[in-house]
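Recap from last week: sequence in, structure out.
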Amino acid sequence: MASNKKYWKSVEELKGSSVVETLSKNEFVENIATDDFLGDKETLETSSTSRRDFLKYVGFTTAAASLAACEGPVVKSIPYVVKPDDIIAGVADWYATSISDGFDFANVLVKTREGRPIQIMPNKEANGTTSARVQASVLSLYDEKLRLKEPTKNGETIEWSVADAEIGAKLNALKDANKPVVLVTGTLASPSTEEIIGSFIKAYPNITHVVYDAVSESAAADAFEKVYGKRALPNYQLENAKTIVSFGADFLGDFHGGFEKAYVSGRKPETGAMSYHIQVESNMSLTGANADKRVVAKPSDVVFALTNLYNAITNKNVASKATPIDADIKKIAQVLKKSGSKGVVMTGVNDVNAQLISLAINKALNSEILDTKNTLNIRQGNFAAVQQLVSDMKAGKIGGVLTHNIDPIYSLPNGNDFSEGLKKVDLKVAFSVENNETVNAMQFALPTSHFLESWGDTHFKEGSFGLIQPTIQPLFNTRQLQDNLLKWSGSSVSYYDFLKEFWSKNILDGSSWNKALHNGFYSSNNTSVNTSANDIAVDEVAAALKKSTKASSLELNLYTKTGLGDGKQANNPWLQEFPDPITRASWDNYLTMSMADAKELGFSNPVKDNGAINGDYAKVTVNGTSVTVPVMIQPGQAKGSLGLSLGYGRTFGFKEEMKVGVNAYPFYKDGNNIQYNVSIEKVSGTHKFACTQVQKTIAGRHDILKVASLKEYKTVDPKDHKNGWNKPAYVSYDHQEVEANTIDLWDEHNREIGHHFNLSIDLTSCTGCGACVVACHAENNVPVVGKNEVRVGRDMHWLRIDRYYSSEVETREDAKAQGLSRGNTYRGLEQEAENPEVTFQPMMCQHCNHAPCETVCPVAATSHGRQGQNQMAYNRCVGTRYCANNCPYRVRRFNWFNYSNNKEFDFNMNNEYGKMVLNPDVTVRSRGVMEKCSMCIQMTQATILKAKKEGRKVAVDEFETACSSACTTGSLVFGDVNNKEDKVAALAEDKRAYNVLDYLQTKPNVVYQVKVRNTNEA
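Predicted structure tokens:
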């Protein structure tokens, strides 16, 4: 026996009593003694015992765990004493509002239950869209750990009246002394707030307003102002484009807020025409992954290639350098010339001269796609003005600094200078929703309301206005920035009254305020942009660009991840656990590196036998600043380039498990996303990644993914047995090849009566953005399990988005045509291409009509409903996991632990605030059961009951799921195939429709549409 043997008190206590007797005394068992052992990770990992005692223990706990799997928590409900008139218990209310947090801007609908916001969806009437971050922002409302709750002075709680008096007196003293005061905010995009700030400056003429965005698009706004006379971002009507060429602009990600809806609108194969999209970039971005043609180049070569494209189109010879991709650039120039005004060029290089070159190319093309009239009023930050402020603060020239919902100490490349400068400022006030490093450094910390608790307005695009309205009473003692500024300006008007009057006078033009508030938006035809363009001195611009582009052997490209963006929501566990669409890693940022560079520098990503990925550490130095970061080898990364995402590495006020990644902002010199003269050194240590998909290739399994070119789509019979791009599956029957759908093990049920649900997923329009993943989390109370559990394959996502790379050899037929040996064939199938094509495939429970999971469940916990949904009865499931073993789609999840009320999983289900986001229509699952996509059965049943109550049939396309509602591009379409007017009925019969692994004849109710690429051959 080991001397450090440990005895578990819970087991000894239960030896004297029967488990069955214990359970008989408690109809709902809330505590099983094994929790003391199984629920404590440290006790479990450090224990040691003999094999005999271990087997005795397991013999007991197996029985206990089986019985415990049937437990259900007691939920105590307290009815209203006096029910509010506008709330019906059990019925959701929806409010139209907007999010405008300085980085994300969207018109949205907010679902509330009993006064609690629980989900966000796009306001499609307002042409609204949502991203993973917008979907997750509802959880940030309940961030009890980080949100400011009371006004404080030097860390001590004070009353609002005290704050008003002291700050007001100080402002007046600084005004009398004529000492500068600076109000620093992110992009507000709010006309009423700009008016209030203007009045505030009139009351205090020594105050100036500086706009600071952590992730800068200042160069694009500066360039547009030089040419068109207004500081704004250009819009792009991509739905009308014939050719789209992007130089590092991730316009399906965060570039100018994203253009995925317009992009997909111009890529409908059934119309016979698709835009041709060429992406020139260093990092593998979401946009590059969706491109028809992707050209890989170092960041400096991307810059010079942009100038070379201008020369090729205009036949001029402005200053530039030759690049390895110039042959591609000449071909791109020919395609753009052919497209003429239907072509467009975009660049994501945050350099004024690069942006001016891009505008010059579009001007040469007479591009109609570049929209200079309906400009974007987002990302208005002025990086130069912020840097001047830091210099003035350090010089002691600034008397007061007021910040609003920003954290420059964390996000400025010279954050330490900002911190030092603050020490020389007399008045320091932070208005903020949450606590952060900058707030902590201020004298006064004033809590502001979350956007879901606020009034406000938005002006994201010329001619389009939005309203923000509260969907819940403030959770804490907060006050909006606008109310503070009005009060300090000497006005007694509330912001709500000011907002209503402002809209009546300046925006509504006689229209109804109540209607605008109900709809959440108002459209106006009045635009203020002068579409006449100033001349661009391209010779001078190109010379300056050549001089500032200092090519080096290693270059760094800074970017933002689809999940975390600029880091504002870094404390949101939904977003931390969200797998990156490209790398499929969560809970991390990392240095992306090409396979060639990794081999040369000695970096690797070994995969463990449980599927977990490890990585080496690198010390990266840029401009004298060093950071140690793990390395992720990324197929499609340009040789000589490195990628690192911003938004990670926040630690102030965070729980230990949320302190992940490294802060890349210190590298963000001059707000430029490209940095040169990078040095890298391999250092000791092994990093453990949490990655949900390590498969790198499709390895010839074309029954999972089907891809066709636009030319094939138009000219080849999809069902052609030899050349078809959507061939049916064939199996051997009686020694002959026959279509799989003619052979079946089961008799068909009559499904003509009632509803029969299908979900159609168009792989052509799915960009892999992941908004559907977070929407599923919110709607179905999917638990967050943390990095360690994700690492060992225990993620609980009901919906995942698989990312597949192409291989050097696509198919065995290709290998045969190339004359490859069998060994080289398999090597080619398994080896990633240096510049692979990427395809995204949302994967959830397929709700098979002939489901293999149903036939193996010993307790009939999983069964098939008449409406086509594969259903789970949680209180019947005993956790044998036979169903997961028998599922060919790997979409079932097992509850290894109780994730709520468990200190080991202290995310959003452990405190009373976090639990407010839970959907009461969906149970929070207990330990020991299988769970999976339910096709949002609670939503389909609610729709049926609503129609029944109103005495009508369910309307056409009325059925929805969380994922289909959240999908910006319309890739996911849900409906009733028995209603032939529903969109999904036609999609299920479309020539692009197919089922994954159709040769198994599980007959799924999820139908995929073959991905079509425009190879520019059609």
